[in-house]
Please model this.
Amino acid sequence: MDSVIYMDNNATTRVADEVVQEMLPYLTEKYGNPSSMHTFGGQVGKKIAEARQRVATLLGCHPEEILFTSCGTESDNTAIKGTLASYPNKRKVVTTRVEHPAVLTTCRDLERHGYSISEIGVDRAGRLDLDELGFRLDDNTAIASVMWANNETGTIFPIDQIAEIVKGRGIVFHTDAVQAVGKIPLNLRESHIDLLSLAGHKLHAPKGVGVLYVRKGTRLSTFMHGGHQEGGKRGGTENVPGIIALGKACELAQQHLEEENTRVRALRDRLQKKILAGCPDCMINGDTRDRLPNTLNVSFEYIEGEAILLMLNKFGICASSGSACTSGALEPSHVLRAMGVPFTAAHGSIRFSLSRYNTQEEVDFVADKLPGVVHRLRELSPFVAT
Ligand SMILES: *Cc1c(COP(=O)(O)O)cnc(C)c1O
Model:
């Protein structure tokens, strides 16, 4: 396959050329340890400080509030487990049924260790019930963790409003913003968010670097013990090239934020319109009013998402399906199940997630190929009366 049409950016993104250029010297000649006393290491430390400032600028916070981690998953784990450890008398976590596994699996593990987990449901469009959120918060709750934007459907939660509700009860608030950063504007200075997770590889930096934002004054027990790196809050020699790359990616994200919400959004809308017009019996999943500009989750009735993906793959088209083949049984996505998407539609769901590297030609190519693929699979489907 010599060329791919990549529409799986919520899974991971291409590293921007500018980002590669920025990090390259730190993989080659500038290999010093930022903790060293000598100038050779010290210059690396300065570059890390610059990266920290760049991330802080994008988020609208202070550089001292940025903690570099190894990935979004580590940031989520640190936020939740680190908060529980610093409030030993509180044994409850409030979260949602549609979180990424980095939060959901962490919570299920905590449940096995005696913590109480409260998962809030969503409606058919994937919107959160804020009244239910209010009911579930109590004196035993140490932390509430609610994602900013859903990775599968793109649905955006009203995070500032949620943070206000949670903080109003004196409870620590964490948001998994891995899918939101770089796609929608954020300003932590004006929010009540205490902890926020992001991952480099979802915004055109490499894999293996993430951030946990920790608002000044937030109690958080150390999760990774070791050296004095990251102000003693996370031991381990820094992923220097990754951190520098993430700093550059954040700077670029700021510059491209408008394009993301105009050109990329228009491409996504064009794809959506063409699919709805070209394929019978399909529907959009998620909140179409409050949705990430790059994400399109669509269900094709009576057929399997995996089969669609395999046929798209033959055309070099990369997308993703909500269901995962576990132990031989096809499990529809937990997000679509929480939304109450009917069985026959949940199984045939496909997520297209675009980026600034996509073109209109690519969108039109995908929209051209899809109706034929869907038609052929339906001819073979046992669920369709012919
Ligand atoms: C990708 C993703 C993560 C996990 O990030 P990693 O860097 O892959 O560990 C967490 N939350 C959401 C919403 C994601 O999309």
